[in-house]
Amino acid sequence: MKLYLFSLGAGLLAGLLYGLLGVRSPAPPIVALVGLFGILVGEQLPTLARQWLPSRPPAETATAPDKQP
């Protein structure tokens, strides 16, 4: 978590610096960032669904009962 906060802080600092210098940042438009966020969330959904949904026991196969000797 510290890594993410450090990354956010570095990005904010760079954005502040760009703003003070009056230059445009090389970042993509916000709509592209929203799409990228959607991709990242979608990538995590199958893992979350597997954790939240109850697991089903394996289906029993229809076999003849074992013969006792």
Question: Could you describe the 3D structure shown?
Answer:
This protein has a domain at 7-51. The protein has 69 residues and is mostly helical. It is built from two helices and no strands. The protein is elongated, with a radius of gyration of 25 Å.
Q: What's the tally of helices?
A: 2
Structural class: mainly alpha
Tally of strands? 0
Described by strand count, sense and barrel closure, the largest sheet is: none
| Assembly category | single chain
**What gross morphology would you assign?**
elongated
Query: Into which percentage range does the β-strand content fall?
Result: under 5%
- Fraction of residues in helices? 55-70%
Could you state the order of secondary-structure elements as H and E?
A: HH
Which whole number gives the mean pLDDT? 83
Poorly predicted regions are none
Distance between the termini: 61 Å
Return Rg in Å: 25 Å
List its salient traits.
69 residues; mainly alpha; elongated
Per-chain topology:
Blueprint: H1 2-21, H2 30-52
